Amino acid sequence: MPNRIRNVLFLCTGNSARSVMAEALLNVLGAGRFRAFSAGSFPSGTVQPIAAELARSFGYREPLRSKSWDEFARPGAAPIDIVITVCDNAAGEVCPIWPGHPLTAHWGLPDPAAAVGSEAERRHVFESVAIMLRQRIDLLLALPLDKLDRLASQHELRAIGSTGTARGH
Question: At a CB cut-off of 8 Å and minimum separation 6, what does 143 contact?
Fold first, then answer.
């Protein structure tokens, strides 16, 4: 369906860093074309302070919160068009059945919340993950989803997951 806003759900186990930053980035960069959400299979209940700070630096002004993916599988929830897992744990979990059978992709990224070291070292890890997310979201925004069929869209979304990693190009 051309010229409609697509709802994208970013999933991670804890929903405290990667998925939250992806939600903020896509909502800022894809405004008018995409509406992003984030959730976790076992949400931590808090957003990592550095992730929240980076989200604000992207220009995201909405309140951020760690939430369960159950919110998006309930009747009356926003219909989800694309589900993207950003951590390897969430990719291996049994996800809820999403109404409408959304496109799915895995964009595995290191967990900045697990980073150890000084504040500067931890911040560097968060910033590196934010850069990788930005690269992948830029590629998502460049996809002509209105012109691709479902199979081609699925393929392109999954290919984005190897961008900016040691495995990718």
Answer: 153, 156, 157
